[in-house]
């Protein structure tokens, strides 16, 4: 087995972790929503569900980006593949930032007004 094969497998493994994070986060958030639906005031359970779900998607996207970077830079280092990687990272970063805005109510680079420090 060559070095590039090992790195390629590592990249796919990192991406698989990203998918697992999203799936597990979805299951955990859904279970918590079902348990808390009747006990919380209207809208609170839904808001909590969206926050938990959004956080798992954001974390999963980070793993997916990392896997893409590892595989593209080390394994397929052509200019076309690097351009495709750049586009993928741009799209996933945009999704991550907009999800962060929706979940936290602020952009990732803004200070948290609720918890300064």
Keywords:
single chain, 117 residues, mainly alpha, 3 helices, elongated
Précis, in short:
With 117 residues, the protein is mainly α. It has helices at residues 3-36, 44-75, 79-104.
Structure description:
The chain is an all-alpha fold and 117 residues long. The chain has three helices and no strands. The chain has one domain. Helix 1 packs antiparallel against helix 2 and helix 2 runs antiparallel to helix 3. The chain starts with a helix and ends in a 13-residue tail after the last helix.
Question: How many whole angstroms does the radius of gyration measure?
Answer: 18 Å
Low-confidence stretches: none
Mind describing the biggest β-sheet?
none
Termini separation (Å)?
49 Å
Number of helices: 3
Mean pLDDT: 85
Total domain modules: 1
How many β strands by DSSP? 0
Secondary-structure element order, N to C: HHH
Q: What would you call the structural class?
A: mainly alpha
Q: What sort of overall outline do the alpha carbons produce when their principal axes are compared?
A: elongated
Question: Which range does the strand content fall in?
Answer: under 5%
Helix content: over 70%
